[in-house]
Amino acid sequence: MSAASPEPRAALVQGASRGLGLAFVRQLLERGAHDRVVATAREPERSRELAELHRRHPRVLHLERLDVTDEVSVGRAFESVSRLAPELGLLLNCAGVLHDEKDVQPEKKLESVDPAALRRVFDVNAIGPLLVAKHFLPLLRHDGRAVVANLSARVGSIGDNRLGGWYAYRGSKAAQNMFTRTLAIELARRAPNAICVALHPGTVDTDLSRPFQRRVVPSTPFDPDRAASQLLDVVEGLAPEQSGSFLAWDGSAIPW
Ligand SMILES: NC(=O)c1ccc[n+]([C@@H]2O[C@H](COP(=O)([O-])OP(=O)(O)OC[C@H]3O[C@@H](n4cnc5c(N)ncnc54)[C@H](OP(=O)(O)O)[C@@H]3O)[C@@H](O)[C@H]2O)c1
User: Which of 34, 72, 134, 217 has the most crowded Cβ, counting Cβ within 10 A?
Assistant: First the structure.
């Protein structure tokens, strides 16, 4: 795809207020490959960066309210987006939580497991992307290519789990991975043009990873724009037979 002939189908980035989601929006606007970019956030008006991007790209960028833990909000966002962009070429689910200012912290040991925190993390990381797919399915059923990419994490791999800990985050990403694979199988029937994958961005310098970067990965984390660009390259290169796979930022397969 070239900047001169933008894809007539829109790209939607869910969870775009900051971090990787925001970087995806920036990169998509820079690449100019889609004639419409929809950025959703639970409180879009609170993201100064999104407002600035909207000021610079008023005709291409559309901001929409969507909280993945509230199905009514997902349904409302669908209604609004479907009027604006009846077909999606790309649906990127980015929202995710590892910790928050209140009750959610990655567990170092069993005694730290808290049912309310587990539910909160599963709501955002696992159930959220599935609800978005449930509502936005009609926009993926068209003659062109559509990619559904769910931002997962290598720590959600069961086969690759050697360190333990982080029960809620690991469990929620493993559940998200199963949902992604199951969705890929259903989409093969109901939206045969769609490719559905789980993506690991590498360690990226965002609010999510910042408190843990030194302890987990000795190497330098990716800048969000570099990470988003790398993953967009992976997305652009996806072949239909790769639907249902779990891929890292360099395109390599990750064990489930
Ligand atoms: N950073 C890394 O090293 C890394 C590594 C592996 C995987 N990932 C995955 O990549 C994705 C993006 O992570 P990030 O590093 O960009 O995290 P981040 O900077 O902490 O951003 C998290 C995003 O999720 C949104 N969000 C949280 N709860 C939401 C809800 N209920 N509804 C809608 N949006 C919600 C946040 O919106 P608000 O501003 O409204 O809170 C924010 O936009 C996540 O799925 C994460 O698990 C990241």
Answer: 34
Closest C-alpha to 255, from 177, 194, 196, 185: 177
Strand 61-65 and strand 37-41: the pairing is parallel
pLDDT by residue for the chain (256 residues), tens only, comes to: 444 567 779 999 999 999 999 999 999 999 999 999 999 999 999 999 999 999 999 999 999 999 999 999 999 999 999 999 999 999 999 999 999 988 899 999 999 999 999 999 999 999 999 999 999 999 999 999 999 999 999 999 999 999 999 999 999 999 999 999 999 999 999 999 999 999 999 999 999 999 987 655 557 899 999 999 999 999 999 999 999 999 999 999 999 9
User: Which ligand 1 atom is at minimum distance from the Cα of 224?
Assistant: 16
Span from the CA of 95 to the centroid of ligand 1 (angstroms):
4
Q: List the CATH number of the domain containing 127.
A: 3.40.50.720
What pTM, to 2 d.p., does this model score? 0.96
Query: Residue 69: CB within 6 Å of ligand 1?
Result: yes
Q: Please indicate whether residue 96, judged by its CB atom, sits closer than 6 Å to ligand 1.
A: yes
Ligand 1 centre to CA of 15 (Å) is 6
Phi-psi region of 108 (alpha: psi -120 to 50; beta: other; left: phi over 0): alpha
For residue 157, tell me if it sits in a domain: yes
Q: Rounded CA gap, 114 and 118, in Å?
A: 6
